[in-house]
């Protein structure tokens, strides 16, 4: 350990000894790889200091709407993914029912759904809402129909994306619930907790880091696909 209270000469000597000890082939390789990764990132950051000619135009026209749409979509997708992933993980981990073993791996399958299949599902859901929009236009008015059409895009998109992204939360939450074991649940039952209290006051707080990690993956995938 290097003491900052040493004399400058001793301090530099200790620093040199530390770097001589740590500077080996592995650290050199890590430094080189780090530089190779950092150079493109530094170039991107440098370009941000010199905005393009169209930046002001984008900022004044579409940037605000894109940011709003992205935030709404991320919030809806994360909420639905966490609700579906955590509830499914709890059911297959802590409940006994016919077909539980099949559901354990079947609930992961939506991760394999191609993007174009999700796009087909999105347009099919919007087509199912067309009769409702026509009825609103005839009986209420075209302005309300336009507002409703623009509004329904958000929940439909969030529902489609959550249906293929919730396994990120499900896998991590199920692993967390499995690690907790039955002793905590038995101890909570001994203390008089009902199943609802056990889930919300014992199991879910312990699984919070896993749920947050899964939700972070959902956010990244949502922004990437959108």
Description:
The chain is flat, with a radius of gyration of 26 Å. The two termini are 49 Å apart. Helix 6 (115-128) crosses helix 8 (142-190) and helix 7 (130-139) crosses helix 8. The protein is built from 10 helices and no strands. It has 2 domains: 8-48; 57-225, MetI-like (MetI-like fold, Orthogonal Bundle). By secondary structure, it is an all-alpha fold. It has helices spanning 8-22, 25-48, 55-61, 63-94, 100-106, 115-128, 130-139, 142-190, 195-206, 208-225. The protein is 83% helix and 0% strand.
Give the oligomeric state. Answer: single chain
By CATH, the topology of the largest domain is MetI-like fold
Structural class of the helices, strands and pairings? mainly alpha
The H-level CATH homologous superfamily of the largest domain, spelled out, is: MetI-like
Write the element-wise H/E pattern from the N-terminal end onward: HHHHHHHHHH
Strand content: under 5%
| Largest sheet composition | none
List the helices and strands and how they pair.
Layout: H1 8-22, H2 25-48, H3 55-61, H4 63-94, H5 100-106, H6 115-128, H7 130-139, H8 142-190, H9 195-206, H10 208-225
Helix pairs in contact: 4-8, 4-10, 6-8, 7-8, 8-9, 8-10
């Amino acid at each position: 350990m290097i003491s900052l209270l040493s004399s400058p000469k001793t301090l530099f000597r200790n620093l040199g000894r530390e770097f001589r000890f740590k500077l080996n082939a592995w650290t050199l390789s890590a430094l080189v790889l780090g530089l190779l990764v950092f150079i493109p990132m530094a170039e991107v950051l440098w370009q941000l200091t010199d905005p393009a000619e169209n930046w002001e135009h984008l900022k004044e026209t579409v940037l605000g709407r894109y940011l709003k749409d992205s935030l709404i979509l991320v919030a809806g997708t994360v909420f639905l993914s966490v609700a579906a992933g955590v509830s499914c993980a709890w059911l297959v981990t802590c409940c006994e029912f016919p077909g539980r073993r099949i559901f354990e791996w079947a609930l992961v399958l939506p991760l394999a759904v191609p993007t174009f299949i999700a796009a087909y599902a999105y347009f099919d859901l919007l087509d199912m809402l067309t009769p409702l929009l026509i009825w609103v236009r005839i009986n209420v008015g075209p302005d309300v129909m336009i507002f409703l059409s623009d509004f329904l895009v958000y929940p439909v998109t969030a529902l489609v994306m959550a249906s293929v992204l919730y396994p990120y939360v499900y896998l991590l939450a199920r692993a967390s619930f499995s690690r907790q074991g039955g002793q905590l649940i038995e101890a909570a039952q001994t203390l008089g907790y009902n199943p609802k209290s056990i889930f919300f006051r014992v199991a879910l707080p312990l699984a919070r880091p896993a749920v947050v990690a899964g939700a972070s993956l959902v956010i990244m995938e949502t922004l990437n696909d959108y």
